Amino acid sequence: MTNINLLEKNMERHNFGLSKYACSDQNAIRFLEEKEDLRSPFFHDIDRIIYTYAYVRYSDKTQVYSLKTNDHITKRMQHVQYVSKIARTIGRALGLNEDLIEAASLGHDLGHVPFGHFGESILNKISLKNNEGYFNHNIESVRLLMNIENGGKGLNLTVQVLDAIMCHNGEFVKGKYCPKPKTKEEFLQEYQSTYKDKDAVKHLVPMTLEGCVVRISDVIAYLGRDIDDACMLKLFTKKDIPKEIVEVLGYHNREIINTIIIDIINNSLNKPYIKLSDSVYKAIVALKKFNYEKIYNQALDENSKKKIESMFEINYDAFLNDVKTNNINSKIYQNFLNYKNNDYLKNTTDARKVIDFIAGMTDDYFVNCYNENKLKHNK
Fold first, then answer.
1. Domain 37-298's class?
2. Where does residue 4 fall: left (phi above 0), alpha (psi -120 to 50 degrees), or beta otherwise?
């Protein structure tokens, strides 16, 4: 056996022993055909994602708590790593393609905006007001990877990875996840429909079992960890968690994660779907409801919300004016538009350019921009 054959065999050995329901490397689809190097397609996608500028910015993006100085509070970077580890654990136990799982896990939240879900809701209002359609962070993640990164050329990721990212939204929990096969054209139709149909994002279903694993792992990763963060901030204690939830899932993050992972494996092994037992599913729904009441709905007070909304509006108006007046000294040119190709510049509206720019910002950069733009606004 030659060295090159041995190398290829070593790089592809994860394909041996996969479940018949797994997505093998041979089934990988790209929009533009290209010759793969030593790396397999999904493994290659992992590398392309972690070397993006957007991936670097994870480290200063809010997970739940904004405007907090505690260095131990989870940021978006830690969350995607938790999702990846949980999803790969499930995937390995079920004989699924771990490279596909890791690529989708690490890329799933790239489109999250400054100040988390609250910031997303404000950018959605701005987008609708300016006739740019509905804004959803999972859709922006896909847009970023297809149309913004790499100077506007995109990364030519596999459709399976893009689809898992698009369909990851853990806000919509189900007791059973069944993959829905798609063509490239069907993926694009679903993607484009989310800008026009408010409810389209709620009905997205991954095309692979690996995508289903990433979706439920997003939920598993934040449920217990968000409670740990809330307790660290002394918002409540774990004794406040309803007894009926604790009896099923446990108190601590490690117990919650382990319980749900084992439950999924036991109910999904050698099956063409990902399933939770009724008791664990009900406990997850109840815990999610508890988290909304005690954590997510309390993460920002009304004064903070008004301040952040004003910051978004001032930043948007200022940068839109800079684009329309061709203010090449503006940050939107110096740090964004100057690095985009002609296709992006010609085929993207001024409003969408500003939305893309703001969506990609870290919290600190967003605040710095606001402080500069506020001075112009008040003149």
1. mainly alpha
2. alpha
Instruction: Give φ, ψ of 73 to 5 degrees.
Output: -75, 135
What is the C-alpha to C-alpha distance for residues 139 and 187, in angstroms, rounded to an integer?
12
Distance, CA of 296 to CA of 366 (rounded, Å): 21
Which DSSP string do the residues of 323-379 spell out, in sequence order?
HHTT-TTSHHHHTTGGGS-HHHHHHS-HHHHHHHHHHT--HHHHHHHHHHHHHHHH-
Task: Give the separation between CA 43 and CA 56, rounded to whole angstroms.
Answer: 19
Indicate the average pLDDT of the chain: 89
Residue ranges, CATH 1.10.3210.10, the chain:
37-298
pLDDT per position as a tens digit, 177-197:
999 999 999 999 999 999 999
Question: Tens of pLDDT along 188-228?
Answer: 999 999 999 999 999 999 999 999 999 999 999 888 777 77
Per-residue pLDDT of 67-91, as tens digits, reads: 555 555 666 778 889 899 999 999 9
Of 108-112, 328-332, 338-342, 374-378, the one with minimum mean pLDDT is 374-378
Q: Render pLDDT for 300-312 as a digit per residue (tens, 0 to 9).
A: 778 888 999 999 9
CB atoms near residue 199 (< 10 Å): 9
Q: What is the distance between the alpha carbons of residues 77 and 105, in angstroms, rounded to a whole number?
A: 11
Is this model's pTM higher than 0.85 or not?
yes
**HEC sequence for 100-124:** HHHHHHHHCCCCCCCCHHHHHHHHH
Looking at residue 220, its amino acid is I
List Cβ neighbours of 14 (8 Å cut-off, separation of 6 or more).
40, 97, 98, 99
5/310 Cα distance (integer angstroms): 60
Could you tell me the sign of the dihedral formed by the alpha carbons of 334, 134, 57, 158, in that order?
A: negative
HSE-up of residue 239 (Cα within 13 Å, Cβ side): 1
Residues in the chain, how many? 379
